[in-house]
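# step 3/5: fold
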Amino acid sequence: MSSNNTDSRFLPLLVSINGFLAVGLGAFGAHGLKALIAPESMQLWHTAARYQMFHVVALLACAFFSSTCEANSRASYWLVVAACLFVLGIIFFSGSLYLLALTQKSWLGMCVPVGGVFFLLGWTSLTMSFFRR
């Protein structure tokens, strides 16, 4: 890999942790929660899991493209920024929806758009990395 050592370990770690959580939480929702929460809450749970998995794929793209960049390049910088923003999006968007589905605390709904903004900024940063090659 031509990426620096930190990126080559950091980004795949983010992918694997979030992939594990997305599959595990999705399966838990499909099999463990169905009888315990309302159908509306199940819909929130499924949305959270779906968006988390979409952004695991985005994290995977960041890891892959980072492995093709020169160490400490502008492109590598933007890929790490994108990955961090995707993780923040997962925490705020998916995390809030998971908690909202379980607790019905309406104030958690205010965190969801913040996560959406992090996702959008992540996609923008990923795009920036391609202009910095």
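# step 4/5: annotate
Helices lie at 5-32, 39-66, 74-103, 111-131.
# step 5/5: archive (pending)
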